[in-house]
Amino acid sequence: MKKTGIVIAVEKDHVVIRASRESSCGSCGGKSACGTLGSWNIKKKNTQDYDIRLPNTLQAKPGDRVTVEVPDQLILTASMTFYGYPVLAFLVVGAISFQFAEKFGLSGDLFSALGGLLAAGAIWMWLMQRPNMIQMPEMVEIERLE
Q: Cβ neighbours of residue 105 under 8 Å, at least 6 residues apart?
């Protein structure tokens, strides 16, 4: 998917791009939860505009029109990465914790919950330290508006 927006600010090696939500979004069932370009540093301005912060790979300047390419599989990959893996860790470590606790005569439910929560939190924190695990949107084209 490609999206066009206007550069409104340059912050060191990043740009802030203001993009508008497409009119086709009005009929989409997921419009209330969607940021059109995903969940990476988007600030909602009104119902139609979003500010997106991306690396300034094309040396864009304020006022330039840029095209941002969003990988088609981004939403599925990001969802699985940041929601699926912590849940999987919760279930697996919770089950293992339950078995160990029962073996030693302790409360299986308590240790299962604690182990699962700790594992899910640890996996989530580890994933948050590695934003390059998923392919992020990038600027692919620039049009200087002078």
A: none
